[in-house]
Amino acid sequence: MLNIAVDKTxxxxxxDTAANIIYxxxxxxxxxxxxxxxENLESFSQAMQEYLNSGxxxxxxxxxxxxxxxxxxxxxxxxxxNRNTEFVERLRTLMPQ
Length: 97
Prior knowledge:
mainly alpha
């Protein structure tokens, strides 16, 4: 379900072509395949931060909101403090083990 939220968000924010460029970058430079993002949250978050710089925070917020919505939870997301750690921890609390 997380991989679907990521895909929807990247395509909504950047469009199909740019989302595919991001996926290619993730696989080529970080060995993260599109369907393996949920298993590689820390690496994905770090890669997004390095690739998008300050824009990563906006994209991660959108991913969280999409993921929450997919679970039937409607919550406004605000990331504070250590954004990278907070993004990963929020996702982990909602994902099945």
